[in-house]
Amino acid sequence: MKALYGVLAGGKRSMGFIERVDGCVQLKKRPLIACLLLAAACSPADSDLPPPAPAAKPCDSRPEKPDGLVVAGSGPVLPIARLIAREYEKRHPGERVVIPGSIGSAGAVAALKDGAIDIGLLSRPLRDSERSPGIIEKPFARVPLSAVVRSDTPVSALGRRQLVDIFRGVADKWPEGTPITPLVRERGDSGNLLFATSFPELAAAIDESLRTRRWTVCYSDGEMRDALLEIRGAIGFLDATTIAIEKVPLKTVSIEGAAPEPAGGHPFERTYFLLARDLPQSPAATAFVELALSAGVRAMLAEYGVAVPTAGNGER
């Protein structure tokens, strides 16, 4: 118990998520996959009472699954998934789609394999180590990852060198004198992985900032969005579609003249995937996947800057 708790407590931000309930260590704000990650930590509660002690209540290794179709995974994919869920519920009266907060791409893989969710949402392709018989991935959306600032920030375009200088701390003020506050995502984030191949100089600047703890680290797209809204002069990276769907007072900054939409040749794009069980799967899960891949939904998503994935985007 102590060893496992120590490992968790030493990980990123985990102290704020850990609590002990009925003898089980659980992750706060992660009820859906808590026992997926921590089932091995379950043990009877310590007691100083003399024997005979009452039998400890067994820990449930799998939390009760919510009623309805449970769709969960990576934070950047959630706004798009919610749009599809609303369309699904319109077409299937009486049926419910449950989309909890972000559990990450890796969490989606684990939860789907365990049966805790019906459909997973990934912001990256499956890793070889995650692939298993009966699990399939379907690319369903391609979205631009954009530099984003608050609407009142007096900038609309940046060169690549300017962007690198900002995240290296060389450029520290906007033209009117407001301090620049760069915000970054944690190591392993799909956006950082994208920069590693498409913009190595920026990836190196972000990696250095993580090593030196120079900038504030946001651990989800929701945290990044909220920090950008709160901090005057902040800059970070978000999907342009998130801004369009959620209608928040943020704006994208073009990079060396590239438009923030896929059709405009944006230099940084991520492909999103639906993760499902191969047949047989529930009729609701099959219907949801078919709807997400339909021409009608793709036309709806195109209004928010979402493009259709091209061949070779990772489906196997």
Would you write up a description of this structure?
This protein has eleven helices and twelve strands. By secondary structure, it is of the alpha/beta class. The chain folds into three domains: 2-41, no CATH class; 69-142 and 271-302, Periplasmic binding protein-like II (D-Maltodextrin-Binding Protein, domain 2, 3-Layer(aba) Sandwich); 144-264, D-Maltodextrin-Binding Protein, domain 2. Strands 3, 4, 5, 6, 7, 8, 9, 10, 11 and 12 form a ten-stranded mixed sheet that branches. Residues 1-54 and 259-264 have low confidence and may be disordered.
Task: Provide tags for this entry.
316 residues, alpha/beta, D-Maltodextrin-Binding Protein, domain 2, two-stranded antiparallel sheet, 33% helix
Instruction: Give the tally of β-strands.
Output: 12
Query: In the residues, how many domains can be counted?
Result: 3
Strand residue percentage: 15-25%
Rounded average pLDDT? 80
Name the poorly predicted regions.
1-54, 259-264
Structural class by SSE content: alpha/beta
The CATH class label of the largest domain is Alpha Beta
Q: Helicity, in percent? A: 25-40%
Shape: elongated
What would you give as the CATH superfamily of the largest domain? Periplasmic binding protein-like II
Termini Cα gap? 39 Å
Biggest sheet record: 10 strands, mixed
